[in-house]
Every structure is written in structure tokens, then in C-alpha cells.
Design a protein that fits this description.
alpha/beta, 19 helices, 29 strands, 28% helix
């Protein structure tokens, strides 16, 4: 071939190549339709599904465990945490990387060696702040920390109601009131998903007890179920729009939650119009085919279900047109959650800087400061004096603050402070007792440089009495650890802690007790001490937050979201056989079966917590909504009005005290049919001394409506409703207003 011919051929190839580039047919092919961000999520998902094979669809409906488990090895693509689903590179589908994160991004069994994160305070503190904006910040914080680690699905958003103050996982939840719990969980979900991370509402539904949780049935009538536990989930789902929902271990009315057609299809899809996907709890699958038909979309960590029963059942059914439609629906639910929450469009894994970590610690600190509850403050015991010797006693306060146990436990940065460890493995949950290394003793020294802070563990009561007499004030820290897989047998503190407190109270009038607990406790020494602060499980910045509250740098304003009974006899179920044992731990064993029981919840029905106490005229030790402050507020001039179907309350709040502080305004609805009161709305307002503000509070329509089982919807009964601006659920003597509401 001549040189001229070679040259002509090169020119021809070049010309064709340029034309191809200009027409977009070479090297710069147009993006696939499902990658078009301007298209609707529905159109993007539909386009994607048209290009998927059946095998690819089936690959999305089960996840792999993402850590070592006996002979099982962590999948190569998994970052390491709760679960992992392999991505589909051919179509650009990212791998769902799933992490536990009820209170922060977890690192189970240290699967990512040394990777600690920021822990939020317990759910009681987050809900007890009555501050939805702050809950949203908390969610955004853990969402951001998940994204830094490469996780795009978080198991965050616990919203099971606290039906019993002995429940082992109550510290993960948002209290006993469905309206407050649902709204706080929704705000947390919104925060998580603002970071392009899917959030998961759990555990659907009525996962009120850990004792026998793998096999027990929690039973109650449909109206009562809808007006209590399902109401919390309904609000969280419809206001938070979580990408995922996790079904629970337990049965509801005799049917396992993860294969319960009423919960998964009739209510979730039919009544609520939910578009995301439903995943099982780890090891919760009982019958694969039943779960497929009921509406489960994804079997979580299938190895814990002893095989691929769910996927096998779906694979078999998908050989027929009806079954193929079911598979398409499950695939659509999963992909919709991924597209809507930005998992396709934002796959960045930004670095985590020191400034951001400090900001995240500040969020955790503020939640604790706003949510801790001052329960007693006599003789102006608090805030502490800024000078003199202050004795700090017990609770390992020189090491850190305690965290709840189980799958929500967050490994602290820089390694964990583990005190009094228990057996630690997946088979013998719960995990070790972890203390977040933010020591109150160190924080008090920083907050009060003019005072002498002395720590004593309290091992010798005689020596303790001598030291306490010399101190200007004594702060006693007591802890009660609770965790996943077991309920508490009682409400008692350890006898040794009660002895510490009694000793200090006799020796020093300025005695303060700081409780770090996951539930209410009995306080036989209450009238003998000067002050009591319920700190719950305080989170990564808990020591600093407690120091700020004790020193007056922060003013307590948290409120109780769980009623504190005087005794177990005040509860619907005084006896709880099996509580205190790991009955319900994974995997099923003889101890679980031994404590198998069904829970008849119809005794209280929808009257959970404070509504139970009101219905039986039982005076609690401390009511829902209770909390003190360092300042004093008055609430006046309540009016209630309707704007269309919306009910609005207006109240004047004045700070009559000497320091700036926050008031939590609570509005309760009293129905004309005599049903127990219901929290209808709330608001948080910051006021300087002498300042007044008019607070506008939207009231929830669910506070006055009732569930109509025949219509499968909520209906508003006609009548005149009384609304009270109350201090708490028991003290209903505040300003009141009446409003006639027509039937709707």
C-alpha cells in the first residue's frame, strides 16, 4: 500500500471518529435514563427496572451479614457493620452499606478496628427536649458520620412506645406518647436523609418487650393498636418519609411482624401509602413464603435466618406472572428509596475533619443539656457554688458516662472505656458495658476552675462520710445499665448505690444525685437529698453537658417522656416472668423458649403511660412532662382556634425568675366522651428574666380524632373539646380553653 493511500485511510478514520464524537455515539454516550436527575424518581426507577434481569432484581431482596460470624466471612465489598448488598456495576446501582445507628454509627464487634463515632444521648433525652429542630440536627449529625464511613443506609429511628418502664431498649425509643414519639422520630429521619443516607424506622410494630421477643405475641384490638403504637409509626412515616422500615421480631395478634399482611400490606401500603421498602430485623424471618406474600421486601443478613428461605421462595414464585409482579414491587420499593434519597446521585465519601467532629460533639452535648431532667432542687442546692471543695462520688465519673448495650452501642473515638465487662459476642448479647470517655470529673474541673473537685469511688462508707462532711457539696453518680435482649426485673438501683446516697445525704445537706439510667428507678432516699438530675445515657459529650447543668452554664429544661410509677403494682403487668435474663437473645435457645409468653395489651389498650394512670386515677411518682428549672415561668391567656381543619393554640409565657431559660409549653386535649387526656401539642421557648412571648402551637389532629375500623381511617367525632395549658400530664390546673369541633 502506498504512503498516499495510508494517509487517506488515516484521514477517513479521523473524520469518522470526529463525527462520532459530535453525534455522541463514541466515548461520550448519553447517560442512561435512570441517571437523569431531572426525571421524576418514578420514571427513573421504571427505566432502570426495564433494563434489569430477574437475577439482578433477586439480588436486591436479601442482604449479607457484614461482619465475621463463626465460619462465615465478611463479604469482600462490605465496609463492615450490620449488612451489605452487592451493587450492580453494569447499571450503576450502588451497594447498600447498612449500619446500626439508633444513637450513632456503630462498629459491632470492632469489625472496623478502632473506628469510633459520636454517640447521641438516649432517646428519652432527645424526645425530652421537646425540640424537633434539635432532633433534626441529631439525625443530620449521624447521617453525616455515616457518609464519611461509606454507609448509605442507617438503622436509625426507633419509635416503639414505652409501654413498660422495665423495657430493655426503652433508652433507644422516644417515650410513651405516640404523637411526641412519632414527631421526634420523623425529625431525626429527616436529618439523616438530608445527608443522602436512607433512614430506617423500627421496630414495626409493638416491640415493647425484649423478654421472649423472638417468639412472643403482643395482642390488642385494632382500634387500640391504631391509636397507640401504630399512630407513632404513622406520624414518623408520613412526616419523616423514611426510605426503609424494619419489621420486628415479635408477633402481633398471633402473626410474626415480618410476615403480617395487616401490618405490611393493609396498613403500611394501603392506609399510609408507603413507597419505601421493608427490611426484616436480623434473624426475624420465620416463614419465607409467608413473608414474601405479606409484603416484606428484603431479608436482612439471611445467614441469621439459617438460609435463603425468603429469596428461595421469591425465586420460585417469580417463575409465574403473579410472582414476577411481586418481585417487581419489591425491587421498585428498594430502588425508589435509593433514588429519592440520593444514593445514585451522591456517592461521595468526604473526609471527616476535626472541626466537624467538634461540631458533632456540640450537637450531642446540646441534646443532653436540653433533654436531661431536673427532678428535685431543694435549698438551692443547684447550681453548684463556683468555689470550695466539691466531692464527686461513684459511677466511674472519673472515666466517663455509661451507654446502653446492644446493637445501638457506639464505639467511642480513641477506643472504648469498658468498665465491668460482661460476656461479649453476637451469640451472648448484650455487649460489654461501655462508658463514653467524657468524664464528668474532668468536665467539672474545666467548668469550675475556682472549685476544688475531688473524686472518690465510694468503696468505704465510713471514709465517704468523713469526706462528705468536709465538702461544700457532694455529687453522687449512679448508673443502671440496660441493653438489648433483656428487660429489667424491677426499678431498683443497686443496693450499693442506695447506700452511697444514704451516707452522703446524712453527712451533707448539699447532696446531689446524678442518675445515668435507661429507665425510671425507685428512689427511697429522694426526700433526703438536695437535688436529683436524671441524665439518662448522656452520649459522647455527656460529661461536659452534665457539668454545664450542675454548674449553671446550662439551665435544665428537659421533661420526662415516660411516667415514673411509685411501684410495679401501678403497672398494667406488675409481673414480668423472665425479666433480667437474656431471654430473646439471638439465636433462639432453650432460655428464650422458657420465657416465651404472650402479652395481652388490651388491659391498657391505647391508654399507654400517662393515659393509663389517668384512666385508673393512679398518682405516679413523677408524671409524663415533668421537669424543673433554675428559673420560674408562668403560662397565661390560652386560646384555641381553627383554621380550616387545623387547630392552633396561643399562649403567653413569662419568665418570672432570675436567669435565662427554656420553657416547654404543653397543651393537652380532653375529649367530650371522657377518654383519658392526650398530649395535643407542645413548644419550646427561650426567655430572659422578665421577658414574655406569645407562643403559637399547632395541635395534632390525632389528639381529638379516633380510628374508625370500619372505614380504615381516622374520623373526628363532633363535640366540645377542652384544651389545657398544663405543667405536665398530672397537673392539669393551668389555663384552659374550649373549642367545638364538627364531625369530619
Amino acid at each position: 500500500m502506498s504512503r498516499n493511500n495510508i494517509t487517506r485511510k488515516k484521514c477517513l478514520v479521523l473524520a469518522v471518529g470526529m463525527a462520532a464524537i459530535l453525534t455522541g455515539s463514541l466515548a461520550t454516550a448519553a447517560p442512561a435514563p435512570w441517571q437523569d436527575r431531572s426525571a421524576s424518581p418514578q420514571d427513573r426507577v421504571a427505566a432502570l427496572m426495564r433494563n434489569m434481569t430477574k437475577a439482578e432484581k433477586l439480588s436486591l431482596i436479601e442482604s449479607d451479614l457484614a461482619l465475621e460470624f463463626g465460619a462465615y466471612k465478611k463479604p469482600a465489598g462490605a465496609i463492615g457493620s450490620a449488612a451489605y448488598v452487592a451493587g450492580i456495576e453494569r447499571l450503576g446501582i450502588p451497594a447498600p452499606q447498612i449500619s446500626d445507628a439508633g444513637l450513632g454509627v456503630t462498629n459491632p464487634m470492632n469489625v472496623r478496628p478502632g473506628d469510633g463515632a459520636t454517640a447521641l444521648p438516649a432517646g428519652q433525652a432527645m424526645a425530652g427536649a421537646f425540640d424537633l429542630a434539635l432532633a433534626r440536627e441529631g439525625g443530620a449529625m449521624i447521617g453525616a458520620e455515616a457518609k464519611h464511613r461509606g454507609f448509605n443506609v442507617l438503622l436509625a429511628g426507633g419509635v416503639d412506645l414505652v409501654r413498660d418502664p422495665r423495657g430493655g431498649r426503652n433508652f433507644e425509643y422516644m417515650g410513651e406518647d405516640p404523637i411526641l414519639a412519632g414527631q421526634v422520630a420523623a425529625a431525626e429521619v429527616q436529618g439523616v436523609q438530608s445527608q443522602h443516607v436512607i433512614s430506617t424506622i423500627k421496630h414495626y410494630a409493638v416491640n415493647s418487650y425484649e423478654t421472649g421477643r423472638m417468639m412472643s405475641s403482643l395482642d390488642l384490638t385494632i382500634p387500640a393498636l391504631q391509636e397507640s403504637d401504630l399512630l407513632a409509626f404513622r406520624i414518623a412515616v408520613q412526616e419523616g418519609r423514611p426510605g426503609s422500615i424494619m419489621c420486628a421480631y415479635n408477633k402481633v395478634n398471633g402473626v410474626y411482624a415480618c410476615q403480617n399482611p395487616y401490618l405490611l400490606s393493609d396498613v403500611l401500603r394501603g392506609e399510609w401509602g408507603y413507597q419505601g421498602f421493608v427490611m426484616s430485623d436480623w434473624g426475624a424471618l420465620s416463614d419465607g413464603e409467608a413473608a414474601v406474600r405479606a409484603g416484606l421486601d428484603q431479608d436482612s443478613a439471611y445467614i441469621l435466618d439459617r438460609g435463603t428461605r425468603f429469596a428461595d421462595a421469591m425465586r420460585k414464585m417469580a417463575g409465574h406472572p403473579a410472582g414476577e409482579n411481586i418481585l417487581d414491587a419489591k425491587t421498585r420499593h428498594i430502588l425508589t428509596a435509593m433514588v429519592v434519597n440520593g444514593l445514585f446521585d451522591d456517592q461521595a465519601r468526604p473526609a471527616e475533619g476535626a472541626a466537624e467532629i467538634a461540631a458533632h460533639m456540640a450537637v450531642a452535648r446540646r441534646i443532653e443539656e436540653e433533654g436531661a431532667v431536673l427532678m428535685r432542687n431543694e435549698r438551692e442546692t443547684l447550681p453548684l457554688s463556683a468555689s470550695g471543695m466539691i466531692l464527686v462520688v461513684g459511677g466511674h465519673a472519673d472515666k466517663g458516662v455509661i451507654a446502653g448495650g446492644g446493637s445501638s452501642a457506639v464505639l467511642p473515638r480513641g477506643g472504648s472505656a469498658i468498665v465491668d465487662p460482661v460476656q461479649a459476642s453476637l451469640e451472648t448479647m448484650p455487649h460489654p458495658i461501655i462508658f463514653e470517655p467524657n468524664a464528668p470529673v474532668d468536665a467539672l474541673r474545666a467548668a469550675m476552675p475556682g472549685a476544688e473537685i475531688v473524686y472518690y469511688e465510694g468503696t468505704d462508707l465510713a471514709q465517704l462520710a468523713t469526706l462528705a462532711k468536709k465538702a461544700k457539696a457532694v455529687v453522687v453518680f449512679v448508673t443502671k445499665w440496660q441493653g438489648e435482649s433483656l428487660d429489667a426485673p424491677d426499678l431498683d438501683l443497686p443496693a450499693s448505690d442506695n447506700a452511697l446516697i444514704e451516707t452522703v445525704a446524712q453527712a451533707n445537706r448539699k447532696s446531689i444525685v446524678v442518675l445515668e439510667t435507661g429507665n425510671p428507678v425507685v428512689m427511697p432516699w429522694f426526700d433526703k437529698v438536695g437535688a436529683v438530675l436524671e441524665a439518662w445515657y448522656p452520649g459522647s459529650a455527656g460529661g461536659e453537658a452534665i457539668a454545664n447543668l450542675l454548674s449553671g452554664k446550662a439551665v435544665p429544661s428537659g421533661r420526662l417522656t415516660t411516667t415514673w410509677p411509685r411501684s410495679l403494682s401501678d403497672l398494667p403487668r406488675p409481673e414480668l416472668p423472665g425479666a433480667g435474663h437474656h431471654a430473646g437473645a439471638f439465636p433462639l435457645d432453650k432460655s428464650t423458649i422458657a420465657y416465651l409468653r404472650n402479652y395481652d395489651l388490651n388491659k391498657e389498650g391505647a391508654n399507654v403511660g400517662y393515659r393509663w394512670f389517668a384512666s385508673r386515677a393512679i398518682a405516679p411518682a413523677f408524671p409524663f412532662g415533668f421537669g424543673l428549672s433554675y428559673t420560674r415561668f408562668t403560662n397565661d391567656g390560652l386560646t384555641v382556634s381553627m383554621d380550616g381543619k387545623k387547630i392552633l393554640a396561643h399562649a403567653t409565657v413569662t419568665n418570672k425568675g432570675r436567669v435565662k431559660g427554656d420553657e416547654v409549653v404543653q397543651i393537652y386535649a380532653h375529649a367530650p366522651d371522657g377518654a383519658p387526656l392526650r398530649l395535643a401539642g407542645y413548644g419550646r421557648v427561650t426567655l430572659s428574666p422578665g421577658e414574655s412571648k406569645v407562643v403559637d402551637i399547632p395541635l395534632s389532629p390525632y389528639a381529638t380524632a379516633r380510628y374508625d375500623q370500619a372505614q380504615k381511617d381516622w374520623r373526628q367525632p363532633a363535640g366540645t373539646y377542652r384544651f389545657v395549658l398544663a405543667r405536665n400530664a398530672e397537673d392539669q390546673t393551668g389555663p384552659a380553653a374550649s373549642l367545638h369541633i364538627d364531625a369530619q
